[in-house]
Design goal:
Order of helices and strands: EEHEHEHEHHEEEHEEHE
Structural class: alpha/beta
Largest sheet: 8 strands, mixed
Shape: globular
Helix content: 25-40%
Number of strands: 11
Oligomer: single chain
Number of helices: 7
Length: 273
């Protein structure tokens, strides 16, 4: 299984399915993954398989290397459409996330004022006031909400520590519309370790569905989206190899149907296949 571990603190630019020419800002170590989720579909693999030895990049290093890259792109006449905080895990985990956002906005204004500053986050740190306030300052505050079903979240997203989806939704509402909700839709089955099984080699395993494209998931999710009242919704499906076998892409028809329901509710929505 191939995984993607991104350079740090700057990578790309890359062509994003949703954002255009994107210059990546990775606030996690370059040799591993640090995340408050451990999603079964993550292109970076599982947390335990990619424990980093390097420290988080320092604020000063991020600013210095971002400025150098923007100077290089300016000289080439190829400016980014977006500066995207993403990479090997959850960017808002960085203790100086808010200050780095300020540095990034300053450099964006200096070198590529038309570019948008985007943050891809799993929403687990939005209870921190500094994180909330920093996300209010970026152009695209893209927050994950894969479902409103706690059992599904625990099965697929594997949050570290307590994750209260109802509380997450309330905190999303606190952005007063300055939020883009991002949701992964997929199909397939995964193998579940039987009760009492000690290792992968012991015991029989059963399969369970990870399909969240049906009405039992889409209906309640759509009601939560309406309550959050975001500026936009981005729905997408698996694009790269996943660390868990058995996962399948949602179909074009499924994504289009969900997208159309969001649009019918008066909220702009895009679907990426």
């Amino acid at each position: 299984m191939s995984t993607i571990i991104y350079p740090s603190p700057i990578f790309g630019p890359v062509h994003s399915r949703r954002l255009g020419l994107s210059l990546g800002i990775n606030l996690l170590p370059a040799d591993g993954k640090v995340c408050s989720f451990d999603c079964i579909y993550c292109e970076c693999g599982f947390n335990e398989d990619h424990r980093p030895a390097l420290p988080l990049p320092k604020r000063e290093e991020v600013a210095r290397k971002l400025e150098a890259k923007l100077q290089e792109m300016t000289a080439e006449g190829r400016l980014p459409d977006v500066l995207t905080f993403a990479g090997n895990g959850e960017p808002t985990c960085h203790p100086h996330f808010a200050e780095i956002i300020d540095d990034t906005i300053r450099l964006r204004d200096q070198y590529c004022p038309k570019a948008k500053v985007s943050v891809l986050s799993n929403s687990t740190m939005i209870h921190r006031q500094q994180v909330h306030d920093a996300l209010m300052r970026v152009d695209n505050n893209i927050l994950k909400l894969d479902t409103v079903d706690p059992l599904y979240i625990n099965k697929v997203d594997h949050p570290n520590g307590t994750y209260d989806v109802d509380l997450i939704i309330e905190r999303m509402k606190a952005f007063k519309g300055h939020i883009i909700v991002q949701t992964m839709f997929m199909r397939g089955e995964i193998r579940r370790k039987e009760e009492g099984e000690r290792s992968k080699e012991e015991g029989e395993r059963s399969k369970e569905s990870v399909d969240n494209t049906g009405e039992e998931y889409v209906g309640p999710w759509l009601e939560a989206v309406k309550a959050i009242a975001p500026q936009q919704v981005m729905i997408y499906t698996i694009d790269r190899e996943t660390p868990t076998p058995g996962l399948l892409k949602a179909t074009h028809e499924q994504l289009d149907a969900i997208r159309d329901r969001v649009i019918a509710a008066g909220i702009p929505c895009t679907a990426s296949y």
